[in-house]
Design brief:
mainly beta, 279 residues, 15-stranded antiparallel beta sheet, 3 helices
């Protein structure tokens, strides 16, 4: 069930980070007070089983005397699955309110018997990232990484990408990205798949931008483009649905509820808060 949480945290990890400087970005997609909740499902044979929940929240806070957005993702398995695999993960980061560059990243992992904490501090004057990794019953590991132009963590890049101008990309075009994952910087990409409609059980139809990101081969994914993401094609750019193949079976994340969206004018979302039920 840990696949579900990691997938949902990754669900918008996409963006043109090498060729489009963060100083040029203008945040139009989100604001302090935005809250998104997702349901996670795992496919066991021919059955989709409800597995967990992820909450994403944006709050305005100061970090080192700088105004920032605190971006936080909390994931947990449902109580019915705790006996099988208990997960309580929290990922948070602080980003500049203007450029959306990350200052600090903190990932607390509590998955069954695996307990760990990954912390990163971004130093833009020295163009490096300081890391501190502590795993259960192991010595603390300290490291310094070269920032390599512009790199982001798996949370801040998601919010940054929501503000990109996707209209300039052609269908099937690759969009490069650079990301910091587990103390390593990866050069990846997403493939733009065009515009597609997603129908909800209540009959509402949402026009979405569709993508397939290049995945890192590891304990979760086989690698390649085995993930598909649908994002609302409006100013809010809310991730609505994501599906992916994993090493065993497949997983799906669905937007369940939302509140505090920044844009209501010409928005696909009819109210400032609501609950969705996707087919």
């Amino acid at each position: 069930m840990k696949y579900t949480f990691l997938l949902l945290v990754f669900l918008l990890s996409l963006g043109e980070l090498q060729s489009q400087g963060k100083s040029e970005i203008e945040n139009f997609a989100f604001q302090s007070g935005e809250k998104l909740t997702y349901r996670g499902y795992y496919n066991w044979g021919f059955i989709w089983v409800a597995a967990g929940e992820v909450k994403l929240e944006v709050t305005g806070e100061n970090y080192s005397d700088k105004p920032t957005y605190k971006l936080e993702a909390q994931g947990k398995t449902l109580k019915a699955f705790d006996w099988f695999f208990k997960l309580r993960d929290t990922i948070s980061c602080y980003v500049d309110t203007t450029s959306l560059k990350p200052f600090y990243f903190d990932r607390k992992t509590n998955e069954s018997n695996y307990i760990a904490r990954h912390q990163y501090w971004f130093d833009y004057e020295k163009d490096c990232v300081y890391s501190k990794i502590k795993k259960k019953e192991k010595a603390t590991k300290l490291d310094t990484l070269e920032n390599k132009h512009i790199s982001s963590d798996i949370v801040s890049v998601a919010y940054y990408a929501r503000n990109l101008d996707f209209s300039k990309y052609k269908k099937k075009e690759k969009i490069p990205l650079r990301m910091l994952i587990d103390n390593e910087i990866h050069d990846l990409y997403i493939r733009y798949r065009g515009i597609e409609k997603v129908k909800l059980k209540n009959g509402d139809v949402y026009e979405c931008l569709k993508f397939s990101p290049m995945l890192v081969k590891g304990h979760l994914f086989k690698g390649g483009e085995d993930m598909t993401i649908w994002v609302s094609n409006d100013k809010n750019r809310v991730p609505i649905m994501v599906e992916a193949k994993v090493l065993i079976g497949s997983v799906k994340g669905l937007l369940d509820s939302y509140e505090g969206l920044r844009s209501t004018r010409n928005s696909l979302f009819k109210t400032k808060s609501g609950k969705l039920d996707i087919e």
